[in-house]
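From the methods appendix. Each design record in this collection lists the tokenized structure first, followed by the designed amino acid sequence. Records were kept in a plain field format so they could be parsed without special tools. The example shown here is representative of the layout used throughout.

RECORD:
FOLD TOKENS (338 positions):
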């Protein structure tokens, strides 16, 4: 029996339980009521008093060795368990990845659509002079768009203002690039407007310009039909209504069939089946001349649209102000979109 105790002692010393399950196995094997130590204690009852003395000593030694080992490993494992619970590398990442702003998403989509048919991207300054924002674009001296109510002028120099539209970039491109020209100009514009659900003092536009020999209104119409179908779906219809802009002749406003009801009539399109999305027209020969382009040789079309408006139609957003509020609940809905 002493040999048995010695053997167990060696076993206990050599055991290396390294998980909670292995430690439990260890406890059951040596320390539980039916374990090896308890079994030996009950065997000892049959031994003579002489034998009992030695056996008792060794058995108690074995018992305390096993208990010590059990307790030491237990506290070690508990420590590592709580540490690894604090930094659990297997947990799914809780990092919030930001999302693109819906205006950027739609801006990128517009750029993408036009780049597929050969339009480049050009940009101009947000602080403009009168020439590029108004005069070169054929705005008469007394045109209401120059009015203080619409335009943020620089107090000390009324020749300088925040651009009211991206049409100013048209002028810059035509002044610096010989035709053929095919470009779009996305950017921020500013108007002195009271902020409401339908108007803002800062918003975004995309200007389009195409100048070459023999460019006709049919080219304009086909380009805009292509754009509308790419942006709003292949069943989208367009219609052009006569309008007026100082820098185009003839001018038109373009409607698309309502994105919600498809043209049947609903409260979004005010039961007309159509929603307006942009202004357009053939570049006025005066504008070509102002920018140093031969208006006898070249013709062209231009168009301009509000990115906020396209985004509203695309995502059924009904208040312009939400774009600027940085409300995470709104912005999160666009996560994962490029
Ligand atoms: N600049 C116009 C605006 O801000 C939009 C526009 C209309 C641009 C017709 C154009 C155009 O190029 O041809 O309301």
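DESIGN:
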């Amino acid at each position: 029996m002493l040999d048995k105790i010695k053997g167990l002692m060696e076993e206990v010393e050599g055991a290396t339980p390294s998980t909670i399950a292995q430690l439990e196995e260890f406890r059951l094997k040596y320390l539980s009521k039916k374990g090896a130590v308890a079994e030996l204690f009950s065997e000892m009852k049959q031994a003579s008093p002489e034998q009992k003395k030695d056996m008792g000593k060794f058995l108690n030694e074995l018992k305390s060795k096993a208990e010590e080992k059990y307790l030491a490993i237990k506290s070690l494992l508990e420590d590592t368990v709580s540490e690894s619970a604090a930094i659990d590398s297997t947990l799914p990442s809780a990092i919030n990845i930001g999302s693109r702003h819906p205006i950027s998403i739609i801006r990128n989509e517009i750029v993408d659509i036009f780049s597929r048919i050969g339009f480049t991207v050009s940009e101009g300054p947000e602080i403009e002079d009168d020439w590029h924002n108004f005069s070169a674009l054929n705005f008469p001296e007394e045109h209401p768009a120059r009015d203080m109510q619409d335009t943020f002028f620089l107090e000390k120099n009324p020749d300088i203002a925040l651009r009211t539209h991206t049409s100013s970039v048209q002028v810059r491109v035509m002044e610096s690039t010989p035709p053929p020209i095919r470009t779009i100009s996305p950017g921020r514009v500013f108007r002195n407007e009271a902020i409401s659900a339908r108007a803002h003092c800062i918003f975004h536009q995309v200007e389009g310009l195409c100048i070459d020999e023999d460019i006709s209104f049919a080219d304009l119409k086909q380009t805009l039909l292509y754009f509308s179908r790419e942006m709003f779906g292949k069943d989208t219809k367009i219609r052009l209504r006569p309008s007026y802009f100082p820098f185009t002749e003839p001018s038109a406003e373009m409607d698309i069939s309502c994105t919600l009801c498809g043209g049947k009539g609903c409260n979004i399109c005010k039961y007309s089946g159509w929603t307006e999305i942009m202004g357009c027209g053939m570049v006025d020969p005066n504008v070509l001349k102002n920018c140093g382009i031969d208006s006898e040789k070249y013709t062209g079309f231009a168009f301009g649209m509000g990115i906020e408006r396209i985004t509203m139609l695309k995502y059924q957003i009904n208040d312009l102000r939400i774009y600027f509020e940085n409300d995470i609940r709104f912005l999160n809905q666009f996560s994962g979109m490029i």
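APPENDIX NOTE: Residues 49-86 form the longest helix (38 residues).
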